[in-house]
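Colleagues,

For the teaching module next term, I've prepared a clean inverse folding example: a structure given as tokens, and then the sequence designed for it. I'd like students to try predicting residues themselves before seeing the answer, so please don't circulate the second half yet.
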């Protein structure tokens, strides 16, 4: 099953109401989900990592049930694979998957930015986007690449929160998570993200100016450039999977 299929499955699953009506149980599942996902995205649980569910639950200091449900959610997102009697395995990122992911991001994110710009947003409306932008610039100035990557991730997610298409937001966020893993892996192998930061600022200014055409064009150019840069690097390194 390829990543696009996983992502479509995830979009359908998260659109359904949660089965559990117990707020305490749901809260525990969410905690387990967020902790596991954070470790996977930061490559603390790298591709190929595998452990039985009881072992994962014990390491997290949690019972098996919320951990099991969290792993089912992560499987729907294409981050892990549940193997009967063998536990959970963190799935690798394939180079072909990254091409698919960036092709979709290049189509969908510029559309979201243009939709936001068309509403003539105020600085207050784009407050979270602006704060993420400022944090990106500050992190870049102090050569904090991890801080920059975190702020960059917030920028993209905050933009999705502003636009009104909930299904688009859900689907694109699932793409972000896979792209984020590859970007963190190559963070120190790429040049300092000066140009990327400038491109984000240009997109933000276009949205604040209410210029939908410019927001779309600038974001599309940014995603195309970063896609080509990342895929070229992975190819040069001979990495078919991460």
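(Answer key — instructors only)
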């Amino acid at each position: 099953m390829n990543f696009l299929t996983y992502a479509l499955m995830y979009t359908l699953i998260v659109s359904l109401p949660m089965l559990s009506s117990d707020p305490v149980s749901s809260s525990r599942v969410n905690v387990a989900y967020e902790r596991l996902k954070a470790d996977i995205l930061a490559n603390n649980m790298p591709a190929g990592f595998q452990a039985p569910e009881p072992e994962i639950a014990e390491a997290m200091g949690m019972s098996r049930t919320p951990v099991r449900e969290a792993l089912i959610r992560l499987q729907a997102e294409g981050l892990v694979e549940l193997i009967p009697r063998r536990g959970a395995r963190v799935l690798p990122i394939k180079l072909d998957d990254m091409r698919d992911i960036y092709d979709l991001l290049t189509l969908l994110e510029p559309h979201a930015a243009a939709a936001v710009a068309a509403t003539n947003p105020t600085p207050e409306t784009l407050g979270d986007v602006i704060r993420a932008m400022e944090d990106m610039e500050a992190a870049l100035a102090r050569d904090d690449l991890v801080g920059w990557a975190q702020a960059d991730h917030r920028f993209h997610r905050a933009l999705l929160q502003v636009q009104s298409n909930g299904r688009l937001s859900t689907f694109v966020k699932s793409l972000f998570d896979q792209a984020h893993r590859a970007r963190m892996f190559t963070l120190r192998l790429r040049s300092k993200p000066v140009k990327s930061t400038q491109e984000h600022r240009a997109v933000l200014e276009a949205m604040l100016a209410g210029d939908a055409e410019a927001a779309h064009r600038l974001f599309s150019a940014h995603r195309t450039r970063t896609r080509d840069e990342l895929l070229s690097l992975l190819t040069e390194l001979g990495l078919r999977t991460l």
